Amino acid sequence: MAAIPPPTGEILFELRPIGRSVKVSAIHVDTGTEVSLAGPISAGEHVLKQMALNKLAYVLASRKG
């Protein structure tokens, strides 16, 4: 499986703790595409943001066909 390149342009992140988890949202400003996921607090901010960025890249690539 080929790696999906990260999206270009501005990406906004929001991290919101919910109990022992964190809800992470990533928004691609140019397209208005938003994804979200939940992960454990113990994963750390960098890992959670990277997971959201990977999901955003996947969604954007799937829309291109």
TrEMBL record:
<dbReference type="InterPro" id="IPR054193">
    <property type="entry name" value="DUF6898"/>
</dbReference>
<protein>
    <recommendedName>
        <fullName>DUF6898 domain-containing protein</fullName>
    </recommendedName>
</protein>
<dbReference type="Pfam" id="PF21839">
    <property type="entry name" value="DUF6898"/>
</dbReference>
<feature type="domain" description="DUF6898">
    <location>
        <begin position="9"/>
        <end position="62"/>
    </location>
</feature>
